[in-house]
């Protein structure tokens, strides 16, 4: 595992936009498009809320970066111990973990239907 270089940024995936493009967010809430390189396509799946390291694309007008690493839980833990993890993303994690559990409406209705 390596730490991000000075040019690389850790971003949060907000949504998939199609054609291997994703909307991403920096710790300062700046949003922009990033692309998934062909080496990850059909091998790695990214969902909303995942974190990645991106390399900037200087000549890009709409697409501002390219994914260089997809961060796993272990990788994120390593980055936290190396003091490379943005504190703003810790707040996002706490907000998500404090949400109440989603109840499954199907399981409660199916038991009442059978008499």
Automatic annotation (TrEMBL):
Residues 18-72 form the S1-like domain. Keywords: Initiation factor, Protein biosynthesis, RNA-binding. SUPFAM superfamilies: Nucleic acid-binding proteins (SSF50249). One of its GO terms (cellular component) is nucleus. Residues 93-115 are annotated as: Disordered. GO terms for molecular function: RNA binding; translation initiation factor activity. The keyword Protein biosynthesis applies. It comes from the Eukaryota. It holds the Pfam family eIF-1a. Belongs to the EIF1AD family. This is Probable RNA-binding protein EIF1AD. The lineage of its organism: Eukaryota, Metazoa, Ecdysozoa, Arthropoda, Hexapoda.
